[in-house]
Sequence to fold (664 residues):
Amino acid sequence: MKIVYMDNNATTRVDPEVVEAMLPYFSESYGNPSSMHVLGAKAGKAVMEAREKVAELLNAHPEEIVFTSCGTESDNAAIRGMLEARPDKRHFVTTRVEHPAVWNQVPYLRQKGYRVTELRVDREGRLDLEELRSALTDDTALVSIMFANNETGVVFPIKEIGEIVKSRGIPFHTDAVQAVGKVPVDLKELPVDLLTMSGHKIYAPKGIGVLYVRKGTRISPFMIGGHQERGRRGGTENVPYIVGLGKAAELVRENLSEEMARLKSLRDKLEEGIVKTIPNVLVNGKGAPRVPNTLSCCFEYVEGESLLLMLSDLGICASSGSACTSGSLEPSHVLRAMGVPYTAAHGSIRFSLGRFNTEEDVAYVLDHLPRIVGRLRDISPFWQKRAMG
Amino acid sequence: MWNYSEKVMDHFRNPRNVGVIEDADGVGEVGSMACGDALTLYIKVDPTGRITDAKFQTFGCASAIASSSALTEMIIGKTVDEAMRITNRDIAEYLGGLPEEKMHCSVMGREALLAAIANYRGQTRESLASPLVCECFGVTQEEIERAIKENHLTTREQVTHYTKAGGGCGKCHEKIEEILRAMSQEKAPMPHGPMRRLTNLQKIKLIEETIERYIRPELQKDGGDLELVDVEENTVMVSLRGLCTGCPSAGVTIKGIEERLKEMVSEELVVREVE
Fold:
């Protein structure tokens, strides 16, 4: 079956060059980087080089890169580690549109007695920086605000946010899982103390992530164990995956600006095509800056899961913020926070493009989507009623 | 990704009886776009009370569309009285089962059917008079009670999976727990509860009775049957007959039989299929 994969914000195909770079570290150079012998040395050197490549991509120092198992671990390590390091501060600031790895910490922290401020977003998914300014207090332990939204692709002004937060002397964490590889992330420029990134969103495998910890930032270790990662994350290094992430970081850095332009052109073509050929479509976050690969739209009068399954029958892979796909009964918290009406949110679809998408892929989706939406609208009791007025 | 049965996917991909009956004798509308699913069911009834045609329009996920489509197939040709007896379980079973989180789709089908029949009979539905429990999804006490009774629900999570009630803001969780408590007390005096120690003889008799009264009629509806072969300690050995023989979902059927026997006879029973 032909596959058109447009779910790159969920995960990406591992780049063949990444796979190739990883392979020797499974079966030939399989040593433990801590070991005092030739295989240990090889593994240690590979980890060091990968750390340098990741640091280069982020314009950071290699010692600021901590390898973890995934983005969720990095978010947990950042938030829990920072709160533990500042036990006298009992206030946490985040937003209503965070990824569950941060968002689901909120009820947990409240239960632990923290006061939590969840910043609002407007209809386009933008923050009000005045609200942020007035939320900060002397009791604020940490601010955690995502770089780019996984569902809508909306990019927050991290530099401005960081300046506001740092001017109050408060540590700042950003979940940049959906930003790294899609927009420039320069940690010399950005006043960020802690940053989360994930391997499998940038063509490395699942199971490897990074927590960037700016030099001088005091944070309690989340995973206590051996001396690995300078005591900030115990556990034997996942050498092949770290090597893979290093290679993936190198590939991203080499092509970032061309790739951004290429993805934007494909995304815009897809967006324009959809809006032109299908009535009653809302594009989420259209009025805000967005990463170049993401298109989130709501097809009114149809339900997202049905749409996804019909697309899937044609080999088109996308995702939805509809309630049904997750097994919850409420649509995506991100779209709800933006004030997208429930009636539209149930019909939301996210197309997220990536390195391996082509013009033909976009044409293929545009060839089939109008018919599928039309078919589901014909089944829907509301479409005709709407047409009748 | 949901694990939908082939039959669900077939009814989703090729829904039967989509559309509107302009001169329908009964129309049932349930759900809303804000809730994420909605179904309008149209029925045509002949003077003898037999449903001669049914059509539907559905907004919702794959299992909502499939449940609606299955429902129309199930009711065409039945009398209104016969159709009244179709439960949401029947709809789910007709489709080869639904994921538990999606059972509310079959309940929506059942509710639309009751609404269409009430409309045909010129009645207002009692459920409209029943107090609203879940404001987020507009679910009444009567609807919740019916789902609990027909599906033997015991937890609040199950009630949410089957009716959506409690799946939004959560304010009605306490009320749902109350309904569950009240109904479990009502059920208590039932003679067949798995509450006492049974002698072997009593146990076998009760197993036979449960098969006769509850299990066999269900299987026969689908052209199947079963034979009780033996009972050894807590292992009940049965043999499937008729259309059940070699049916790909025989495993599901055996599981269903086991659940029913556990509920009616003893928690400890295990059902095994033998030749």
